[in-house]
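agent: user wants the full assembly modeled, not chains individually. Plan: 1) parse entity lines 2) check alphabet per entity 3) run joint structure prediction 4) return tokens. Steps 1-2 passed, four entities, 660 residues total. Proceeding.
--- entities ---
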Amino acid sequence: MRVTIKDIAKHCGVSSGTVDRALNNRPGIKEKTKQKVLKAAKELKYRPDFTARSLVKGRTMTLGIVLFDLYNRSFAQLLNAVELRARQYGYFLYIALTDKDMENEKQCIEYLANHKVDGIILFSVNKGQEFEEYLHGISIPIVTIFNFLSADWEYIGIPERAAMRNGVSHIINKGYQQFIYISPPLKYEGLTNIYTQEERLHGFLEALSANNLTETEIIRHNDYLADLETIDFRKQAKTAIICSCDLYALEVMRFLKKKGYQIPEDVGVMGFDNIDVLKYISPSLTTIEYPVEDIGYKAVESIVHKIENGSYIGKETSELSYRFIAGEST
Amino acid sequence: MRVTIKDIAKHCGVSSGTVDRALNNRPGIKEKTKQKVLKAAKELKYRPDFTARSLVKGRTMTLGIVLFDLYNRSFAQLLNAVELRARQYGYFLYIALTDKDMENEKQCIEYLANHKVDGIILFSVNKGQEFEEYLHGISIPIVTIFNFLSADWEYIGIPERAAMRNGVSHIINKGYQQFIYISPPLKYEGLTNIYTQEERLHGFLEALSANNLTETEIIRHNDYLADLETIDFRKQAKTAIICSCDLYALEVMRFLKKKGYQIPEDVGVMGFDNIDVLKYISPSLTTIEYPVEDIGYKAVESIVHKIENGSYIGKETSELSYRFIAGEST
DNA sequence: ATGAAAGCGCTAACAA
DNA sequence: TTGTTAGCGCTTTCAT
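--- prediction returned ---
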């Protein structure tokens, strides 16, 4: 059996209350008694039981983070940052991956709530009134990241739309005339939360219409390479392929190279995210950079503030900066 | 306040024992009462408190995983697999990152123990008798991954040494005559657990000596590119640069390209890990592949088995397979 | 300065 | 079939 405060108390001939005072630096204990208890605790290899403490304190000193998966480099970077900051604040971190499944996500949140985490960092795939009511129901501080939910929830992200609009504007200025946009499928449009993807797409469209451009094709399914197969990029007006994330852009570049196209002479490619492996890719990819680690840090800071002070840091949504990176691919 | 079983009991006019029976499908309760309780639970939005349950049950249904960080793609892939399998088994996952810091790691483990996780998956940076005694002291099932500790602990990994030996043998057969080996620094040699790195290095050396080759330079610091700077690869016998992981190999390739070298004509490069981004790199990197996801799955299966049956699945250490991938870089 | 005791929410053993 | 009760290990309040 594990050593408990009772064991220490018996060992020292004091009460468990006194042991508690010694162990937790509480006032009202003679220095000598304290030392005696501390010594005994060390000797007996006492280890506090956080679950018992949590039960009485009502706080677990744990946070939960809900993400899709870790296939995308950005998520791993984010998680790394969140874990680091959380532990600095004395919180432990549960990780729950939803695989973009709505039911899965709900269950993850439910479990986190039952485990009584003090706060949840949520990159949600769910949305809608019912979902938000559910979230309110668990009455645990939540901060949303990347996918916006509603003004009811603290949000940390970047101005996705403006970032994409800005990036595409740069591309347009380079003289591209035709545009293909590639983005994840919309299978559950209206149902799932695809805020970031929607925003990026709108940013793209806004940039086009601001320049009176209409020539565009939007590909929203996973078999996007098959669509590209049918196009001869050398025969049509100068084309740029805009991808909603770097991962797609890398796939597209690989495909184009295999087909013998010159990038950017025959066709330009742009990504979004600036994932860390881009530095090994050539031609270097034109993309949008944003401080993914900072999003992680801010999310933790925000939620800890809410936990410990009962309110979020800022009234409004925090949006961090972004930066266009001109690569050789456009 | 949260709804408790007492609230339900009062609401239904039954005892808390009966509520417990209904909620947890325990026998000895009339179907009608059960339905009544279940209905009330739903209406009142009852949510069980796992911390309270843990306290009495002595189990938390959580696992902890201890890793260096998530910078390396393999770690993220591993974590993804572990989380998936853990949740399939009904366990939640704590993640603790050590940043390769020994003290940090000890504290992470201490915290996991205090949070009373049912098991720990450990990629350790610590080693030695004192550390192992400590691990025994917390008396929680542990399975070690990648970095072997001792026969006292279940281990899941790959035969690193044989894998590297095999890979390097392939390179040797290609006619390379001179070899440079690049691997992480050995700052705390003898102190920290660098099992995988050591094994890979030995595999490299074994391959050389099996072929009576002696021309080799081993670089074990982070500024390895500076060392390469001093070498003119065109002027010396055909050289291969063997890197202990793909991340280094990518850095090396980038450096070499910048210097105007042709790969593999002027110099060959080999990596280890087969991280998923390699498919976007050209020339394609020669490397060693191993099933990192399977390691994650096996780790979870093994620890859950130990938790639920009191013993590990296999008596011996499990080592998974590996595969040499001949790329264009050698 | 210290001890005694109640109770956090749940489970489990024993009674009824 | 249902109720009662004693904890799980800790914190906290109230006595002493």
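agent: reporting back. Residues 2, 4-6, 16-17, 20, 24, 26, 48-57 of chain B lie near DNA strand C (CB under 10 Å from a C1'). Residues 61-157+292-319 of chain B form a domain with the Rossmann fold fold (CATH 3.40.50.2300).
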